[in-house]
Amino acid sequence: MSRLYLKDLINSNFNCENNIIKNSFPSEIGVDYMEKIYLQEGLLFLKTDYNIKNPIFLEAKKQNERKFVITICTKGNSTYTNNYDKKTLPFKEGFTTISLFKNTEGFREFKDKQISQIRLILNENFLKRNFQKSLVEKFFYNKENLQLLDFSLTSLESQFLLNDILNCKLIGELRNMYIQGKVFELLSLEISKLQKNKEEITLDEYDKNAILKAKEILLENLQNPPSIVTLAKRVHLSEVKLKKGFKQLYKTTPYQLLLTHKMKLAKNMLQSGEYNINEVALQIGYKFANNFTNAFYKEFKIRPKDILKK
Length: 310
Prior knowledge:
- The protein is 46% helix and 28% strand.
- It is an alpha+beta fold.
- It folds into two domains: 2-199, Jelly Rolls (Sandwich), CATH 2.60.120; 205-309, Orthogonal Bundle (Arc Repressor Mutant, subunit A).
- The strands form two sheets. It has a seven-stranded antiparallel beta sheet.
- α5 runs antiparallel to α6 and α7 crosses α9 (239-250).
- The longest helix is centred in the middle third of the chain and has 28 residues, at 172-199.
- The relative contact order is 0.09.
């Protein structure tokens, strides 16, 4: 496998004034394309495409500054390996890699002949201006000089945003404003994953089936639902795993899901015209019609009696 120095290929042109760089590779290596969009001071949108004749190693020069990098790989597979501790970052087709570099020196291995990637590169000053609490305070004080913060399938939302950015037909100032807005939306989406990952727990098939069973138990007992303690015992999970797992699978709490189900059921019953308000309230577990009315109004911003009039 060929070993080349990135500083002699890409980095020699990386800081040039041209926003588009083509064919900086020697012809015997392959064809490369790089497009840079500087959105703000310290925020770079970088599109790279490589068509390489044979797999190669590219040795990168030392990075003395701290950079936060989001890499969305749309085609091909590659890796970056840090010389200091041999830690490796994966860049895999269909996946997004979020990483933090500080004083790193290493090499990239291009495993496929065609590699297409989108990178958002944020320098330290930009991070401190915009993400002091969500990124700087959480990750900057880790002693590791290369951190893999997240590696996950690229979401549909991110794919749609990338498509909007790459296929923007606007020109001039409007184009700049549009792309900057979309990039910030993409940044927000990707950075929010770091917080979500902290809250998520690992659920195996047993856990998922148990949480599904807990949901079924709740919906089967509208008038007298079990407590979380009782529910956890019935499905043989800890209270913590039940609550966190429920939130992870259904994006809500057990009792909020139950309440939403009860209100939808109540609305259908009222709309059928076969029940009065007291009957509906009792059916879904409310002893007092006033309590039901208040909960119904909070859910739909309309009172039960107004539905009966329709």
